[in-house]
Design goal:
alpha/beta; five-stranded parallel β-sheet; 13 helices; globular; binds 6-O-phosphono-alpha-D-glucopyranose; repeat
């Protein structure tokens, strides 16, 4: 069945490996008879009536939401705010005239997110839940549901749900975009699925890198700019959750405003440099930390890579780089956790879905 580990030692590794297949499944699930990508017409209408989208989520789903904002704003021109559910519910910001709420929740059961849904429903605002679990609480209570089609995710640390969320967010933004699609999203997502595959096939390299670069370290930093910044937040969260190495994700340009004080001899810095418009700046930030003793590993992409880069992704559309760049970060966390003797699938103090506020 779907939820057996088979020959895998951990659910997390199995779920990491399932990602290319999940993206292909999503492409199929959202393809029309004409072969283009589309979503439910009622959901599309809800987007077309809205003057602003409010994305509400927690944890990894929040990190997917940050990337979703770029997709909606760049592809459909709809302004987006992304909020942490536990903050939004108790300190609601000023809302636009015609807000639409999008709840991103793998489980569909997160209490922090549900309390926001209850409040916005009472105010009469329309809502959509993007979830992996049909029939879940948030799916039942929202006006509309968008499904992830990722299959059951068992490991506490979310992997395939995150990449699935990114794919469905891209498809949704694309579907609600009114301009004649300049982007062939279907082809670009298929290319991204292949890039994910290439990265999941690089396990031995990532196992070695985790060993030499991370496993015996006390802390680690992830830096990036633009979309890479949001992926760096997710990379840091993954590492914290399962290896208990203190990790932080930073916007490259912010380092000099504080965090650089923490850089010591041997501090690991994972630098994401996939975005061509900002990768020269990010490479400048890497020089700033290595001059102070940090060990940096640059993750770039074919087309804007340099000879000494530690990891190079196959080329994918710039908006879709997060789908591929997160894979080596998931694998680094997995191997660091394993090498430190941690419980990969069931990290201490964490639950798969948190049904208390
Ligand atoms: C828990 C999990 C996280 C997850 C978060 C949000 O804290 O440990 O991995 O990202 O809940 O979960 P959701 O199901 O709402 O996406």
């Amino acid at each position: 069945s779907d939820i057996e580990k088979g020959t895998y030692p951990h659910y997390m590794l199995k779920e990491i490996d399932e990602q290319p297949g999940v993206i292909r499944k999503i492409i199929a699930a959202y393809s029309t008879e004409e072969g283009t990508l589309d979503i439910d017409p009622y959901i599309k209408q809800a987007f077309q009536h809205a003057d602003r989208l409010y994305v509400i989520a927690a944890g990894t789903s929040y990190h997917a939401g940050l990337i979703g904002k770029e997709y909606f704003e760049k592809l459909s021109g709809l302004p987006v705010e992304v909020h942490i559910s536990s903050e939004f519910g108790y300190n609601m910001p000023l809302l636009s005239k015609k807000p639409l709420f999008l709840f991103i929740t793998q489980s569909g059961e997160t209490a922090d997110s549900r309390q926001v849904l209850v409040k916005v429903k009472a105010l009469g605002y329309p809502s959509i839940t993007l979830t992996n679990v049909p029939g879940s609480t948030l799916s039942r209570e929202a006006d509309y549901t968008l499904l992830l089609h990722a299959g059951p995710e068992i490991a506490v640390a979310s992997t395939k749900a995150y990449t699935a969320q990114l794919a469905v967010l891209a498809i949704t933004a694309y579907a609600v975009s009114c301009d004649a699609h300049k982007l062939d999203l279907k082809t670009e997502l298929a290319i991204a699925a292949n890039a994910i595959q290439t990265m999941t096939d690089a396990k031995e390299d990532l196992k070695k890198l985790a060993h030499t670069f991370l496993t015996d370290k006390r802390n680690a930093f992830f830096i990036g700019r633009g979309l890479d910044y949001y992926v760096s937040l997710e990379g840091a969260l993954k590492l914290k959750e399962i290896s208990y190495i203190q990790a932080e994700g930073f916007a490259g340009g912010e380092l000099k405003h504080g965090t650089i004080a923490l850089i010591e001899e041997g501090t690991p810095v994972i630098a994401l440099a996939t975005q061509s418009s900002v990768s020269p700046n990010l490479r400048g930030n890497v020089k700033e930390v290595t001059a102070r003793g940090a060990h940096a590993c640059i993750l770039s992409m074919e087309g804007n890579n340099e000879p000494d880069d530690g990891l190079v992704l196959p080329h994918v559309h710039e908006l879709l780089t997060p789908l591929a760049s997160v894979i080596p970060l998931q694998l680094l966390s997995y191997y660091a956790s394993l090498q430190r003797g941690c419980d990969v699938d069931k990290p201490r103090n964490l639950a798969k879905s948190v049904t208390v506020e």
